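To: structure desk
From: M.T.
Subject: fold request, one chain
Message: Could you run this one when you get a chance? Sequence is below, nothing fancy, just the single chain.
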Amino acid sequence: MQTQNDLILLATDTRLQRSADGGATWSPAGPWTQADAAPAETQVAALLAESSAPEYLFVLTGSGRVWLSDSGGLAWRDALPAAAPVTALAVAPYFGIRAWAATTEGLALSTDNGASWSLRPLPGGRPITALASDGRVAETLYASVRGGEVYRSDDGGATWADLARPGAASVRALALDAGSRGLLYAATDDGVWMRSVTPLQPTPAPTPRDTATFAPTPTATATATSSPTATASATPTHTPSPTATATATPTATATAVRRATRTPTPTATATPTVAPQPPAPPLPRDDDRPTPNAPPAVPPIEEGWRDR
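Reply: Done. Structure tokens follow.
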């Protein structure tokens, strides 16, 4: 397995071999079990890693134990010490690693690089024989169960949709085309089958759009041009110097106060209140594109299973 440009990992019966120079030289990594353990305890059934987080490695042994390393293989620990034997394992990039481990009791899910696990229901209530994850949408998972049926989940294994059965034999392995993510392959006892699927598209967070549009809102407060009201009160008070002081004060003050209050009435300030428009664009766009967080309906399937 090659996790970086020059880093190659090779699993043996008792430990991992590492090459940091493209295979020119090799050095042993730390062992994941005791040297005197039974052969099924040390035999490697699967070695999984993600290039986005190469320090996290998962090993599935022939006895159904899962060993985890967060140091690129230098040290190992038992990832599921209290779980039933694991029959299938899958990983996907998700702020590190998201891992699924299928057991006879359910589907164990970890969203924190294998530190903790939660149990999900088995698809169809039957044991899982193979798993395949989507490398770009961590919520999408494919699983085959005992009997040959294949299922799909778009919410991390909480709910499942039946994708029918490829052929008449048991499914040994599943693989999703890494490029298009639109072809699902199933290796069975009577050959390799394939079918087209519709992948979900990863959606970036739309929050940056709203921050720029809120800038015009402070300009609405600047339209409080009540400064001209001071000029209206100044002109009537200086004219009453001819002895008509009694008559000038009531009329001038009354008109000045009413003009000051009516001048702000041009409620052109209502026009800047169009600023609450920013929340409107995200609503139609979020509705148009499915997100992994909200479990969508079963995506349309273009074609069923066909023999390769």
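Reply (cont.): The chain is about 15% helix and 30% strand. Let me know if you need anything else for the meeting.
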